[in-house]
Amino acid sequence: MTLGAPRVSTDNFAPGELVLNMGPQHPSTHGVLRLQVKTDGEIISEIKPFIGYLHRCFEKHCENVTYEQVIPFTDRCDYLASMANNFGYVVAMEELMEIKVPERVEYIRVIMAELQRIASHLLALGTFGLDVGAFTPFLYMFRDRERILDMFEMTCGARLLYNYMWVGGLSHDLPIGFVESAFRFLDYFEPKIEEYNNILTYNKIFIERTADVGVMPADVAISYGVSGPNLRGSGVKWDIRKDEPYSIYDRFDFDVPVGIGEKGNLGDCWDRFNVRLTEMGESIKILRQALTQIPKNGDVHQTIPKKIRPPKGSIYKRTETPRGDLGFYIISDGSPIPNRLKMRSPAFTALSVLDEIGRGWMLSDVIAILGSLDIVLGEIDR
After folding, report:
1. Of these four, 166, 208, 235, 352, which has the most CB atoms within 10 Å of its CB?
2. Closest CA to 159 of 149, 172, 147
3. Per the structure, how many domains does the chain have?
4. CA distance 94 to 103
């Protein structure tokens, strides 16, 4: 991947080859992204992503603000899964500072993270359907996502950027009636997954656009560091919530869906889509358990430190966001300001593999392949 827009050299062109720019203003790039596509007719021979259009100096900003002030910046990286980004950062900080949060806080964090996973997947699947020409499922999925955003707004007053999870606790406890609202949503939403299967997953045209397209073999996914649903779509059963449990995920009973090549070759666009759809059902399982087991009492501000000043040292902690393995590497020099903060983006590794799995396909397939990777440019550019 490349920053900027250098002049295209024609030295390595075969007769009949063209270079086309897809973006940066393009309706199907899932952010401000430019793809330089080399084609022979309709067949792709090379895809070169150009990034940086949304670069906002996140990591450098973090070296000039206090640890508390970093949290709103994490919201703005993957702005479609802000709760998950908050979660990853505060878990790392609490491990660095050896803070043990109350049980109620742990349960609320898991509830918010899994609601966010469903909301993020709904947007990913809806826009993916839109990319390949299915408009109606997009509207249905946005309708259901709105119900989750309503619950977030009920809790912290925001619908997109939350600043909800704090080091040592939460900004607000759950409002009265939240648990009942969440159960009502789950009862409403669970049958919708089968509805989505009927109108999109097993739709003949959708299968023809996605099955056997953009196949990512497991060894390619691993070599590029791909994680999350993209890795599991290639048949690799790896989920940090199961394999390296953090918070209280080891208390919940849920499965890790993987691609099986049901409609084509293992690791194709259809498998990646289906893994995300099936994952929403597993999130419902976790939510039902967490909402049932959550302690009735507990102060969500009890363990929030008055001054965040971690001891000298460093920590690397990773969590499972809707897009995969999100890592925070934090170096502390004992002051209230991070000495260094590095974020590992799962969307960056997903975009890195685009050229590898996109070669040999037609121009129209590039949109389907890119949509199946579910990237967010705010997280890639940071």
Report:
1. 166
2. 149
3. 1
4. 14
Residues 21 and 49: their CA atoms lie apart, in Å, by 10
Examine residue 137 and state whether it is found in any structural domain, yes or no: yes
Task: Give the burial string for 289-323 (b: 16+ CB within 10 Å, else e).
Answer: bbbeebeeebebeebbbeebebeeeebebbbbbbb
Q: Print the domain residue range for 208.
A: 58-339
Strand partners, 2: 50
Cβ contact 155:182 at 8 Å: no
- The residue behind tokens 């419902």 is 284
Q: Which residue has the tokens 């062109």?
A: 13
Alpha-carbon gap, residue 73 to 63, rounded angstroms: 12
DSSP state, 174?
A: P
* pTM (predicted TM-score): 0.91
Work out whether the CA dihedral 28, 30, 31, 37 comes out positive or negative: negative
Per-residue pLDDT of the chain (382 residues; tens, 9 = 90+): 555 555 555 556 666 678 888 877 666 566 788 888 888 888 888 889 888 888 888 888 989 999 999 999 998 888 888 999 999 999 999 999 999 999 999 999 999 999 999 999 999 999 898 888 888 999 999 999 999 999 999 998 888 898 899 999 999 899 999 999 999 999 999 999 999 999 999 989 999 999 888 899 999 999 999 999 999 999 999 999 999 998 899 999 999 999 888 887 888 999 999 999 999 999 999 999 999 999 988 888 999 888 999 999 999 999 999 999 999 999 999 899 999 999 999 999 999 999 999 888 888 888 889 889 988 888 888 8
Kindly state whether residue 38 falls inside one of the protein's structural domains.
Answer: no
Give domain status of residue 199, yes or no. yes
CB-based burial label for 103 (10 Å; 0-12, 13-18, 19+):
middle
Whose CA is closest to 87, among 290, 248, 271?
248
All residues at 6 or more sequence positions from 84 whose CB lies less than 8 Å from its CB, including other chains: 78, 113, 116, 117, 120, 319, 321, 322, 326
Radius of gyration for the chain, computed over Cα atoms and rounded to the nearest angstrom:
21
Dist CA 64 CA 61 (whole Å)? 5
